[in-house]
Sequence to fold (272 residues):
Amino acid sequence: MGSLLAATASFLDARSQGIPWRLRIDDIDTPRTVPGAANDIIRTLADHELHWDGPVAWQSRHAADYEAALNTLTAAGRTFYCRCSRRQLRGITVYPGTCRQQRNPAPDTAIRLEVADADPGFVDRIQGRQQNRLNETVGDFIVKRRDGLIAYQLATAVDDGNVEIAQVVRGADLLDNTPRQLYLMQLLNLEAPSYAHIPTLVNAAGQKLSKQYHAAPVDNTNARENLYLALCLLGQDPPAESRFSSCEELLGWGIGNWFIDAIPRVKKLPAP
Ligand SMILES: [Zn+2]
Fold:
């Protein structure tokens, strides 16, 4: 339901402005990719009549673009090779710069980005002004993992920095990632999109409703009811549910009455 909420908000926001709505599957973390998960997402969107424009973009098929971006950062002298073990870094939230002098490629290392004293702040359309001094909150962060995979932050910065992407609407659980992605876009001379981070649905323990915490999947046979609930959670105050006989009618109302300022300005919402 949390993912459907984000998809619905993103869809309505794009459609109400008459701009295309794109679908990208972030499957760069291949070892963690659950087989069939992407197909489940695609089926859920289709069953809720949330139709996207153009082809589906798959991060796992754009590795060459991400490697090119990494080469740009390396050529600019911004990356280094980190040998620190998981054990050495246990309990550390801000990378202490241990390996900053390691500028020559070595086997079995991660590649980190040297973070300057900068604050890639931004104004979120829902959450308001965000500030984050990266050198105080995360420090030099990983752009290529020890297992050879491009890190999520870099892949997403390259994709969202594409000139065709004007706006990103996603869950507030990703809000902490945004400054790292904006920082990468700055270094790569990419055009940053605007952001709207909608509240994340959480269970009674405050955990995100997701497969990770064994939340029940959305029941696609109740698509209309799910969309109605999503509109309510997004603060859109739709008229009585009985007025709508289909997903199309609900989405049509949602597009015509979309009011982003009505979305609760919180990071977490308790699931109903
Ligand atoms: Zn290190």
Q: What stands out?
A: The pocket of zinc ion is lined by residues 82-84, 98-99 (CB under 6 Å). The mean pLDDT is 94. The chain has one domain: 2-270. The radius of gyration is 20 Å.
